Amino acid sequence: MTTPTQGQPLGMSDFFALEAGEYLDRLDAVLQSDAPPAADEFVRLSRALRGSALMASQQAIARAATGIEALARAVREGRRAWDPGTKQIAIRAVDDLKIFVRRAASWTEADTAKAEALAAQLEQLAGRPSAQVRAAEALGLDAGARAFVAREGAAIASALDRAGKALSANPLAHDPLQHVLKAIQPLRGLAALNDLPPLPDLLEGIERAIGELSRGSAAPSALVGELFQTAAGSIAHAAREVAERGRPDPEGAAFRKFAGLLMQFMESEPEVVPIDSLFHSDAGPHIVQRGTPPARPATLGRLELVSHGEHLRQAADSLERAPSPTQRELRAHTLAGTFRALGGAGGPVAERVAEFAQVARDAVTRGIAVNQAAVFAAELRRAGDILSRAGAGDEAALAAELAAVTAAVRALGGAPAPAVPESAAPVVSIESLAPVAPPAPSLAAAARPSAPRISAPRPAVDEPVPESADLVGSWTAYERLAAPGFGTASLDVLLQGPSADTGRPITPGHRPRGAAEPAVVDIRTLLYRGARARQRAQELREAAKRVNGDELRAIIDEVCDLVVLAIEPE
Is 136 exposed, middle or buried (0-12, 13-18, 19+ CB in 10 A)? Predict the structure, then answer.
């Protein structure tokens, strides 16, 4: 083993020689013991040696280290007994690896052949690997890749757990969500991620939930916190299964729970309430004339519709290929963003596109995309084919075809057709709504000064109307109080209150005899002091948990003022 000159910095080969030499010395000590070696320590040191060689780009030495790692795994799994013959082969392999490390700086093709022969001998001695190892190797996941998934999965789970707790305490605390997105990026870059279902769908669901929160979702804070904490548990469980078995269980309980919570989260958006449902259940009239809906903004052109059509066809294929109901549910919910974008489409086919998007989104919400996946995917593919022809096709024909697909999707779950507005609904003339003219005033009433009167509907029969709690009773009470007449409006009268001698409101220009001037109140007596200041500080403490930015700074300033006032006596 080479030693660098004093004062000269270590190069990559020197560092590898020191690190690999340390691993080999520890392996030698483990194998030379009279007692059987600790299987886990044997595997750990062999794996560390292989990783060190890979980092130093010593592929041939890494290949030989893979052989001794295979032998260590065979001993640990009981496929190879630890007898004197196995012990001798292992010790000789460590000695050969020491020689390889010393020759790393002057490596030759002959050394490569020797390292390959040593690896083949050790792998043959180790025998056939276990089914779990074979499954992981079939996916292209070696021990290093599984360790990477485990490490990054733990980091994502930690970020999700912190975000869930922060959102449960303060729904406006969106800063932890950015940390979650940064933690997801390394695992997203793994080429074999698509071969580890349902990890890709789980990450997609997490990103969609973060996007909805960033757009101002109205979901309850308790549901949001539980969603992210369940996602943390799902990611941690999947990473642990990848490290131990090579792949996660796509039908695990944690995945199913996350899929259910994600569906509740997406359904938490408040629905549009029809205005006719806000009226009393009487004969009306209620809606005299139906309004004209606002023009839909032309946010999507033909090229965008073609792109969305291609995406819908790919989504249909992905939905059909989902190997488990949980993955199918997660993939179906990823279509919500596409349906939302299609809802704002412009052009002559805008109404049909928006209608299809709404019906398809309802189908996903009601579980049809999961329970009738094949039929729903077929209709989704038909819609994708229609939108893909939007660049050059006849718009009227495309709209008709899309309407047929919309009707087919609506019929999947037995959903009722939307109510069609009655174009022949009678229009009530505004003259018929005018109030009945009041009777002519008497001579006595005409002789005294009067203020402008507001007419109102009167009963057909000239009978005293009780002052009930409804609108008619309120009008009767108003007429009784307004009978004496009104003077000129005055703010002073309102501030003075009722007259002391009559008990009635003071008319303008009249001042009660002996009325004293209102006392001047020192504004300092209105400040919080003592216990009230401490109570106000506690109220501000609770309010600070729900705000941020300028509002939070204003609360902090007020709390600082209350500290001084709390010390003073009341």
Answer: buried
- Encoded tokens for 565: 């006032």
The CA distance from 218 to 210, in Å, is 13
Which structure tokens are listed for 51? 């990783």
CA distance 55 to 51: 6
Return d(Cα 90, Cα 30) in angstroms, integer.
Answer: 11
Percentages helix, strand, coil for the chain (3-state, rounded to 5) are: 65, 0, 35
505, β-bridge pairs: 498
Q: Which helix (H) or strand (E) holds 98?
A: helix 84-102
Q: Pull the structure tokens for residue 411.
A: 């019929």
In contact, 376 and 384? CB cutoff 8 Å: no
How far, in Å, CA of 306 to CA of 354, rounded? Answer: 15
Q: Quick one: 462 exposed, middle or buried, by C-beta within 10 A (0-12, 13-18, 19+)?
A: exposed
Concatenated DSSP letters for 239-282? Answer: HHHHHHHSS--TT-HHHHHHHHHHHHHHHTSPPPPPGGGGS-SS
- What CA–CA distance (Å, rounded) separates 529 from 569? 7
Read off the pLDDT of residues 430-484 as tens digits, 9 standing for 90 and up.
656 655 555 544 434 444 444 444 444 444 445 667 777 777 778 888 888 777 7
Cβ neighbourhood burial of 91 (10 Å; 0-12, 13-18, 19+) = middle
Q: Are 129 and 137 in contact (CB under 8 A)?
A: yes
Q: Rounded to an integer, what distance in angstroms lies between the CA atom of residue 264 and that of residue 266? A: 6
What backbone phi and psi angles, to 5 degrees, belong to 488?
Answer: -75, 140
CA atoms within 13 A on the CB side of 439: 9
Query: Phi and psi dihedrals of 219, rounded to 5?
Result: -70, 145
- Rounded CA gap, 50 and 66, in Å? 6
Of the candidates 53, 49, 42, the residue with the CA atom closest to the CA atom of residue 23: 49
- CA–CA distance, 289 with 487 (Å, rounded to integer): 41
DSSP letters, 481-516, are HHTT------HHHHHH-B-TTT-SBPPTT---TTPP
Per-residue HEC secondary structure of 366-412 comes to: CCHHHHCHHHHHHHHHHHHHHHHCCCCCCHHHHHHHHHHHHHHHHHH
Query: In one letter, which amino acid is 345?
Result: A
- Give me the amino acid identity at 14: D
Convert the pLDDT of each residue in 107-163 to its tens digit.
Answer: 888 888 888 888 888 888 887 554 455 555 445 466 677 778 888 888 999 999 999
pTM comes to 0.42
CA dist 283 and 306 (Å) reads 49
* C-alpha dist (Å) from residue 291 to 237, 287, 421, 423, 426: 54, 9, 11, 12, 14
